[in-house]
Amino acid sequence: MSHTGSVLCLNLLLFLHVVAHFRSNAQQQWPVPYRRVDSRPAADSFCEALFPFCPTGDSDGRIPSMRDSDVISVYRLQTPVWEFKYGDLLGKLHIMHDAIGFSSSETGSNFTVEWYELFQLGNCTFPHIRPKEYAPFWCNQGAACFFGGIEDLHWSQNGTLEKIGELTGNQFNDMVQWVQDDNETGIYYETWTVRSDPSPNATVWFESYDCSQFVHRTYRKLTELGAKLSSKSQTNYTKIYLFSGEPTYLGNDSSIFGQPALKNLAGDIRTFYHTFRPHQTFVDFAVSLLEAYEKVVLEKSFYLYYNFEYWHLPMKPPYIQITYEEVPLP
């Protein structure tokens, strides 16, 4: 490398160091705010779902309006993830999916609204490493699904189906408009909640953005509209935590994978995510588990993708934890 090239590379590294220092010391807000978009982009055709998204919902996202004289019952819905395939298996690990049900007293119609991954949880948690593209490729969109009916057995057999309140028809219509606006601007799913430690007073570095967070946002909106919500049971929800020291901002795709001076960082990120690639054989999966343990536990390192940007997490014990904890109704 020429002297001029070396100087340019050094200046670039110094610039990135200054930017990271400036972000962490002068501007950084914790938890990092979830970044919304102006409108939802079309999903890339490369992304494929094992199970189709919202198969019985209206293709145009249309939701019927209710008369103001109507009384709409509100139901808290919860069931083990993939209950339709594995029954209560993931429920024993407290890995639950959440939704909200509605029932019209005037028409007798029932409805369910939920927010979940377009291309399943694995695609939302880890990217694809494609040979012809240096940057990892993400299929991490999530979206709202509104469909007719409440599958009573699906929710009640291994989970929860509980009436928690009532709405007027106008309140329901206002909530529907809010769901559509929320869905248009909050487009990507985030599995992890990242904290400094498990204690109640821990610093939260990043919040998840998943099915339960959608339910909480909707409950808050309903109370803003004047609804009174209450539950006779404890309202617990699944949280998947990573524990780390203060995260370091790294950059986005173009600033990391488009810079020769950062090829080592780019390569490390690709290697890290390659460990979690989909469609592995049993032998490959066993090897990947050992590689993941080495990286996350022994080297105490994790790369997080949030707001279309990469962060490095200096991991701390207990590293990862799945909890089923109470979040009271607003």
Characterization of the model:
- 32% of the residues lie in helices and 26% in strands.
- The chain is built from nine helices and eleven strands.
- Strands 6, 7, 8, 9, 10 and 11 form a six-stranded mixed β-sheet that branches.
- The longest helix has 25 residues, at 3-27.
- Exhibits palmitoyl protein thioesterase (S-depalmitoylation) activity in vitro and most likely plays a role in protein S-depalmitoylation.
- Belongs to the CLN5 family.
Q: Report the average pLDDT across residues.
A: 91
Radius of gyration: 22 Å
N→C terminal distance? 61 Å
For the largest beta-sheet, the strand count, sense and barrel status come to: 6 strands, mixed
Sequence of secondary-structure elements? HEHEEHEHEHEEHEEHHHEE
Shape: globular
Number of separate strands: 11
Structural class: alpha+beta
> Can you give the helix content as a percent range?
25-40%
In percent terms, what proportion of residues is strand?
A: 25-35%
Q: Low-confidence parts lasting 5 or more residues at pLDDT below 50?
A: 1-22
What is the count of DSSP helices, taking H or I runs of 4+ residues?
9
Pfam families: CLN5
Keywords: Glycoprotein, Signal
Protein name: Bis(monoacylglycero)phosphate synthase CLN5
GO molecular function, one term: palmitoyl-(protein) hydrolase activity
